[in-house]
Amino acid sequence: MAGASRSCLGPGGTSHGGRNRGPDEIKDTDWGKRRASWHYDDVPLCGTVEYSKYCRGGRCASAQLARQIELLGDERARTRQRNEALKWVVHLVGDIHQPLHAANRGDRGGNRVQVSFFGERDNPPYGNLNLHAIWDVHMVRRLVVDRGGERAIVSATIADSDRNAWEKGPISGWINESHRIARDTVYPLLPVAASCSNKVVDVVAIGEGYYSKAAPVIEIQIRKAGVRLARVLNETLGR
Q1: Which residue range(s) make up the domain with 32?
Q2: What is the DSSP track for 153-177?
Q3: pLDDT recorded at residue 59
Q4: Which residues does residue 205 pair with via DSSP β-bridges, in sequence order?
Q5: Among the four 32, 185, 202, 236, which has the fewest Cβ within 10 Å?
Q6: Contact 131, 115 (CB under 8 A)
Q7: At CA 86, angle to CA 83 and CA 92, rounded to 5?
Q8: How buried is residue 179: exposed, middle or buried, by Cβ count under 10 Å (0-12/13-18/19+)?
Q9: If DSSP codes are grouped into helix, strand and coil, which group holds residue 114?
Q10: What radius of gyration, in Å, describes the C-alpha atoms of the chain?
Q11: What are phi and psi for residue 39, nearest 5 degrees?
């Protein structure tokens, strides 16, 4: 897999290096803002909407991940195009394993649910903390510290039965899995009523009670994303 990646990227290229910047680095630029919807599938938690409605013209994470995988595997494409596709593949596999990138409750994937996290409200440079941000970044950071560093998480032994189960299924299955976590865990665990008929309007205090139940879910999602990314890269570049 590594050799195939180097061949795709060209001399000295890495999945996060080179002259092209990654998806997170450009998200606040005009170019990045025009691709903001590539980072999520706005699957409604309240009611149902056809895929074509929330993924118009393929402008959602699941469609773009499939597109970028195809481009990555195209040996006729330019090295720079495949380089950028690789960055998107790595990024989007991570995104769709974050539950709030696969769910919308009329709150922009939790971005409108204001929270404090262990008493903190600041989320520089984006203002105040919200539910999406703590699932995206802050609980992950705390988990890494609690587990003794990133290496402890990514090097943990994965049972063959789990690995085999996680590798199976299409991208849509991964989205559905994250959506169920948002429905069954992200919102029900909040220490306030959060039903479809009851929008969260006040700042929600998130502390140890919520985090201790969310952390194992996050850790499993990180491991699943790693296993599935490896499968995608092996299948796409290892041929």
Answers
A1: 2-237
A2: HHTS---HHHHHHHH-S-HHHHHHH
A3: 95
A4: 116
A5: 202
A6: yes
A7: 145
A8: buried
A9: strand
A10: 18
A11: -90, -5
- Among 72, 93, 68, which residue's Cα sits nearest to residue 174? 93
Structure tokens at 145: 């510290």
Number of Cα atoms under 13 Å in the Cβ half of residue 223: 21
Residue 110, CA atoms < 13 Å, CB-side half-sphere: 23
Task: Encode pLDDT of 83-114 as tens digits.
Answer: 999 999 999 999 999 999 999 999 999 999 99
Instruction: With CA atoms as reference, report the closest residue to 39 among 103, 111, 95.
Output: 95
The separation between CA 181 and the C-alpha centre of its own chain, rounded to angstroms, equals 13
Region for 16 from its dihedrals, namely left if φ exceeds 0, alpha if ψ lies in -120 to 50, beta otherwise = alpha
Record the tokens describing residue 40, joined without a space. 């999520």
pLDDT confidence tier of residue 28, bands split at 50, 70 and 90: low
CB-based contacts of 234: which residues, under 8 Å, 6+ apart? 1
Please state the rounded mean pLDDT for residues 135-158: 94
Q: Of all helices (H) and strands (E), which one includes residue 214?
A: helix 208-237
> What's the pLDDT at 30?
66
Exposure string for 203-234, b = 16+ CB within 10 A, e = fewer: ebebeeebbeebbebbbebbbbbbbbbebbbe
Q: Does residue 211 contact residue 71 with C-beta atoms inside 8 Å?
A: no
Please count the structural domains in the chain.
1
Q: Judge if the upstream peptide bond of residue 11 is cis by omega within 30 degrees of 0.
A: no
pLDDT of the residue at 126: 85
Handedness of CA 30, 34, 35, 40 (dihedral sign): positive
How big is the CA angle at 92 (ends 142 and 174), to the nearest 5 degrees? 85
According to DSSP, residue 120 is labeled: B
Q: What is the mean pLDDT of the chain?
A: 88
Tell me the angle at which helices 208-237 and 79-96 cross, rounded to the nearest 10 degrees: 150
